[in-house]
Design goal:
decarboxylase; EC 4.1.1.23; Aldolase_TIM; alpha/beta; 11 helices; 8-stranded parallel β-barrel; TIM Barrel; binds orotidine-5'-monophosphate; orotidine-5'-phosphate decarboxylase activity
Length: 239
């Protein structure tokens, strides 16, 4: 049966590929992430399809703009009906508060459940060198914790960060704050373009609520077997 702490990233661009992955994983996976590659190509029907298959949906479009634009973007996404959506924490407190208010108001108006809002902190593809090159002044972990606390103060439901930062965020932001960690690499997988990585078991041990995993599953020769191995790793140390 599925472990809903695992979110599989559908980083593909056609409905045919989506259907092939979702069909082959069957009841082993209950939560999927739709990102920009898929949503820009196929739009809302990706969400509808996953809902028809009784799957939870994380719609990861990483909104980042002025508060008014992001608030209206969030209202539109509330209508789409995803369970989780992402906005950039770097958009700042006014933007995050406007997003939270927009999600609440539009969900009330539509009579639907409000999507949970996650703040992107520092992408897991950053290492210190690349981070400094963008002008980052604080070490990455300090920047992540700063954004996590700010996101919480603004009423956001949680953050996306590396599992390497999960422990300190759990301590600082409490047990109900969602900590969603990509950059997860099970023992059998390659690193790809990820820099701040962790294994499934250590991520959960350090307090991650959910793990986002893409290529180690979707590009595996046997995706269902990859999921089985990952769930085994998740359950080996996390209980
Ligand atoms: O928001 C995300 O999901 C995200 C944030 C981040 O910091 N790092 C990151 O890798 N992601 C996403 O998580 C997924 C990771 O995919 P894999 O590297 O293939 O496991 C991709 O869909 C990324 O867009």
């Amino acid at each position: 049966m599925a472990d809903d702490r695992l979110i599989v990233a559908l980083d593909v661009s056609t409905m045919d590929e989506v259907k092939a992955i979702v069909t082959s994983l069957g009841d082993a996976v209950s939560f999927y992430k739709v990102g920009m590659e898929l949503f820009y190509a196929e739009g809302e029907k990706t969400i509808r399809y996953l809902q028809e298959q009784d799957k939870h949906v994380f719609l990861d479009l990483k909104l980042h703009d002025i508060p008014n634009t992001v608030a209206h973007g969030v209202s539109s996404l509330t209508y789409v009906g995803a369970n989780l959506i992402t906005i950039h924490g770097q958009g700042g407190p006014v933007m995050m508060k406007a997003a939270v208010q927009a999600a609440r108001e539009s969900a009330e108006k539509l009579g639907v459940e409000r999507p949970k809002l996650l703040a992107i902190t520092v992408l897991t593809s950053f290492d210190e060198e690349a981070w400094t090159a963008t002008g980052g002044q604080l070490p990455i972990s300090d920047q992540v914790i700063r954004l996590a606390k700010l996101a919480k103060e603004c009423g956001m439901d949680g953050v996306v960060c590396s599992a390497l930062e999960a422990k300190m965020i759990r301590q600082a932001c409490g047990k109900d704050f969602l900590i969603v960690t990509p950059g997860i690499r099970p023992s059998f997988a390659t690193t790809d373009d990820q820099k701040r990585i962790a294994t499934p078991a250590s991520a959960l041990q350090d307090g991650a609520s959910r793990l986002v995993i893409g290529r180690p599953i979707t590009q595996a020769e046997e995706p269902r077997e990859a999921v089985r191995l990952i769930i085994e790793e998740m359950e080996s140390l996390s209980k």
